[in-house]
Design a protein that fits this description.
mainly alpha, ABC transporter involved in vitamin B12 uptake, BtuC, two-stranded antiparallel sheet, two-stranded antiparallel ribbon, 75% helix
């Protein structure tokens, strides 16, 4: 029983990270019908920026550790959001009225550029987060001991996702994002600045992705310049699983994928976890081609 709860908690923590990254995919697709293949590399940029600020710039040595980590999370979110905004202005906006294949090629090119830029700046090696940056406390529930960092990752992920959902559903700007996702032409007719809304989406998605990248570094203790590909692919699967273009679907898909992988690793084999995750995706798409929640709210957030 303890092993089950350990794996379940680990799956929820990893699933929360998948969900945060998946939100970036699903928001961009909902507005532009474009898969931002560079999104996983923005996730990697967030991890490296966080490590740089905590260690190289010594923020963790200037402020109390908890305050330093919170500040760095905020700074990483803002900086990766800025990178996402610049990506949209340079790689996607000039191709707004071109065919979709051109935009896809541009996204792939941006991904290759970011990955190689990270490799050249930081060198192609694994970077390790110092132990003092990784929370080491434990929490005891029902007589079982769990690493506290898992609860922190889950809580932070859920909080960020709820804040995004409330922003999309309860604010005028969120209503404008939903309107642009449904029909850009009609949104322009009612006075919505579509270009600003698209730029805002490219601020929010990469910002959450960068925060998720730093979470991975703190959770696992190490990062490398290729990590964005793997996590980006899993997040893309999570977005499809829940219903691409659907924010609640991205959340559900991320947590579901994380739990499936964790249980597969614990009870079957670590080597089979990816195969099992893809198998579940295939089965769900056969039963519900639009994803678990896609049929009801796809393209409307």
């Amino acid at each position: 029983m303890e092993q089950f709860f350990q794996q379940l908690l680990n799956g929820l923590a990893v699933g929360g990270i998948y969900a945060l990254v998946a939100l970036g995919y699903t928001m961009v697709y909902g507005v532009l019908k474009l898969i931002n293949f560079a999104h996983g590399d923005l996730f990697t940029i967030g991890a490296y920026l966080g490590l740089t600020m905590l260690v190289s710039y010594g923020i963790a040595g200037i402020l109390p550790l908890s305050c330093a980590i919170l500040l760095v999370f905020l700074m990483v979110g803002l900086l990766t959001a800025l990178v996402g905004y610049l990506l949209e202005r340079t790689a996607y906006r000039p191709l707004r009225h071109a065919d979709r294949l051109s935009a896809v090629v541009s996204a792939l090119g941006a991904s290759i550029f970011f990955q190689n830029a990270i490799m050249l700046i930081y060198e192609p090696r694994v970077y390790v987060f110092p132990d003092f940056l990784r929370p080491s406390f434990t929490i005891t529930l029902f007589g079982m001991t769990f690493p506290g960092v898992r609860f922190l990752i889950i809580a932070a992920s859920v909080l960020l996702m709820l804040c995004l959902w409330a922003f999309i559903q309860k604010t005028r700007t969120g209503a404008a994002i939903r309107a642009v996702a449904m029909d850009q032409g009609a949104a322009r007719l009612v006075g919505i600045n579509v270009d600003k809304i698209i730029s805002l989406v490219f601020l929010i998605g990469p910002g959450l992705g960068g925060i998720a990248g730093l979470m991975v570094g703190i959770y696992y203790g190490q990062i490398d310049f290729t990590m964005g590909w793997g996590y980006g692919l899993k997040a893309f699967i999570a977005a499809i699983l829940g219903g691409i273009g659907n924010i609640p679907g991205a959340m559900l898909g991320g947590f579901l994928l994380g739990v499936i992988e964790a249980l597969a690793s614990g009870y079957i084999s670590m080597a089979w976890k990816d195969a099992i995750a893809f198998f579940v995706l295939i089965v769900i798409l056969i039963i519900r081609p639009t994803g678990i929640l896609g049929e009801r709210t796809a393209d409307k957030f």
